[in-house]
Design goal:
CATH class of the largest domain: Mainly Alpha
Number of domains: 2
Oligomer: single chain
CATH topology of the largest domain: Growth Hormone, Chain: A
Order of helices and strands: HHHHHHHHHHHHHHHHHH
Number of helices: 18
Distance between the termini: 30 Å
CATH superfamily of the largest domain: MFS general substrate transporter like domains
Shape: globular
CATH architecture of the largest domain: Up-down Bundle
Structural class: mainly alpha
Helix content: over 70%
Largest sheet: none
Strand content: under 5%
Radius of gyration: 20 Å
Number of strands: 0
Length: 390
């Protein structure tokens, strides 16, 4: 267990700081958009570009690990995030597009390189838990963006605020340098892969392909929660923004707790695939409950259903990444994680516009959540059936 503490600390810090860089522009958008002469809603295109580039950069991570070593790739990821935040301060649209590309390229490296490090050091009996703890860096990064960005914008301006966050990213890169020096002797000794080789690995390993497709489906539900839940509570159900924000925060907090709880359960009591299957079914039922919200629901019931929704729709990632690492060919954890992440980010990229289309077709956010609940439920039932047969 001692051998995994330092890799876990590094990967958790890198996950949190790059997640902060991904989310901070959305927090700054209301102020920055006015100076750029665009609508704040245009931040959706910025986020889409981040995820598009992250999909592509993840495929290169295996080759980068083989060339530079895992800790150096961690440093590269946070330096790219820092460069993106700094580029955005140019306050012209080409610089903003460059910012999205740089931040996304750094973010796309994080899961593959983290899986590479943790798969080598985590005790087999604790892999799901260790990976899940690392994944709490995603909501932690969102919390950092929410806590740090608004006062920086208020007191320094959004440009200097972005620069300050860029310096924070660079500080993480510097703090990992002693570990990089210790690793340097073994860097560059891995087997490199071609750019599209990670996708080939996914398609030639059916159990991994199943996981990749499940992650695409689960990712759509996760982004639907992230993107539209506050609008649903506020615009359709009449909750004030403060109350809607607190309910939304409850869902995220439950996601953090869920990531750790589901990881521990997958290590001790259930197989990872059975755990993922149960989470898919839980997503479907809690999503259906959320879809049934009305003004007659008591607030505690709304909070409870939202917490169950967040615990499942936000809490699945660590168990999934650990199972991908278990199924990876020897020495190729980072590469095959980049390949499966390609599918995950397709879901993240497609979910927000697709959900918006469904809202228009069915006539409301609640009905759209009901529609989006169907696929996770089917995927969960499929995994449970497969687990029972095996």
């Amino acid at each position: 267990m001692k051998g995994v503490v330092l890799p876990l600390a590094i990967t958790l810090a890198v996950q949190a700081i790059t997640s902060m860089a991904m989310i901070a522009p959305s927090v700054m958008a209301p102020v920055a958009a006015a100076e750029l002469g665009v609508s704040p809603r245009a931040i959706g295109w910025f986020v889409a570009l981040e995820y598009l580039v992250a999909m592509l950069s993840g495929l290169a991570c295996g080759a980068l690990i083989a060339r530079f070593g895992a800790v150096r790739v961690c440093q590269i990821s946070v330096c790219l995030a820092a460069a993106g935040l700094a580029a955005g301060t140019g306050a012209v649209l080409p610089a903003v597009f460059a910012a999205a590309g740089l931040i996304g390229s750094g973010y796309g490296l994080v899961n593959p390189v983290s899986s590479h490090l943790l798969a080598r050091t985590a005790p087999p009996r604790m892999m799901s838990l260790i990976f899940s703890i690392k994944q709490t860096g995603v909501p932690l990064g969102g919390a950092l963006a929410g806590v740090l960005a608004p006062p920086l914008v208020l007191y320094l301006s959004w440009r200097w605020g972005a620069a300050a966050l860029a310096l924070l990213c660079l500080a993480v890169a510097l703090l990992t340098q002693p570990v990089r020096v210790a690793e340097a002797g073994g860097a560059g000794s891995g087997a490199s892969t071609g750019y599209f080789a990670p996708l080939g690995m996914v398609f030639t390993h059916p159990p991994v392909l199943e996981l990749a497709i499940v992650s695409l489906i689960f990712g759509t539900m996760q982004l639907a929660l992230f993107t539209y839940f506050v609008s649903y509570l506020n615009l359709e159900l009449g909750y004030g923004l403060v109350a809607a924000g607190l309910i939304y925060s409850t869902a995220h907090a439950a996601g953090i707790i869920g990531r750790i709880a589901w990881g521990a359960a997958a290590d001790r009591w259930l197989s990872p695939r059975r755990m993922l299957g149960l989470l898919g079914v839980m997503m479907a039922f809690s999503g259906a409950a959320v879809a049934g919200f009305s003004v007659d629901w008591p607030l505690p019931a709304v909070i409870l259903a939202s917490a169950l929704f967040g615990a499942s729709a936000v809490g699945w990632n660590g168990v999934y990444l650990a199972e991908v690492a278990r199924r990876a060919p020897p020495g190729q954890v980072g590469a095959i994680t980049g390949g499966t992440q390609f599918f995950t980010f397709i879901g993240a990229l497609a979910a927000p516009p697709l959900f918006g289309v469904v809202v228009g077709l069915v006539g409301g956010f609640g009905k759209a959540y009901l529609v989006f609940s169907l696929l996770p439920g089917l995927a969960g039932a499929y995994l449970l059936a497969r687990a029972r047969r095996s």
